Amino acid sequence: MPITLPASATGKRLLTAAFVAVLAVGVAGCGTDRMSTGSIGRTSGKPVELMSSGELRDATARLGQSYASNPTDKNIALKYATVLQMNGDADQSLAVMRKLAISYPKDRDVLAAYGKALAANGQFEPALDAVRRAQTPEYPDWRLVSAEGAILDQLGQRDEARQLYRKAQDLKPNEPSILSNLGMSYLLEGDLRTAETYLRSASSQPNADSRVRQNLALAVGLQGRFDEAEKIASQELSPEQAQANVAYLRQMLSQQNAWNQLKAQDKSKSQAAKAVN
């Protein structure tokens, strides 16, 4: 049975990189993805996904001012859309990217990031179209291949998604983001052990980034191994953030178990009623 992850604000901050698709690790990729894996400005060297709520607000305000002064600047708009999305403003992020896509209708980076923004808003079919338009068949970009797979995963097309991940692996062997997307594919399906296997492989690669390890922490935590999950998470997060994530996982699993128990009780009552009749 697939695991249903709640879309509360707390859940969104739990491990943001894991939830902005399973697709985040490749979608914005072709050359400007530094905005999601590196510093977003000269004043901070911290990756966006590790920023606190206050830091994200500051970054959003700073980039918002720059964007207002020059909304057609590609790099500023891409970074602004990213921090908006990380800060929970998915609608505004999409609006920024939609406007940028009008200005740069054939730019691969812009189309890819536009696809990410669409997917983050649950508009998976248009997202798929944007990512496919960004691709060049004669010179396929592994990031876009992996991103297309991630969107198909969100549409429940697991087999097709995994075929694309393997195609991406052929183009870029041992790439941690592809292995991570493959692991998250199995996590979405509820196969936590297989998910953990791929995510461990991803996190062991020399160029694995924070998001990959946070995805591994998620897979481990969802299996109830909270101490291990906290240890993995604390490699990048502050002790307070790691503890908060694990506490949320405990609460989420407790609620899920309670829901499953209620469903089991309803099923038993229905079977008993049929037996009586």
From TrEMBL:
Q: Which Gene3D superfamilies match?
A: Tetratricopeptide repeat domain
Q: Name one GO biological process term.
A: protein O-linked glycosylation via mannose
Annotated GO molecular function terms are: mannosyltransferase activity
**Coiled coil spans:** none
Which keywords does the record carry? TPR repeat
Instruction: Return the TPR repeat spans.
Output: 142-175
* Pfam family membership, one: TPR_19
Q: Which InterPro entries match?
A: TMTC_O-mannosyltransferase, TPR-like_helical_dom_sf, TPR_rpt, UCP035836
According to UniProt, the name of this protein is: Pilus assembly protein TadD
Taxonomic lineage is: Bacteria, Pseudomonadati, Pseudomonadota, Alphaproteobacteria, Hyphomicrobiales
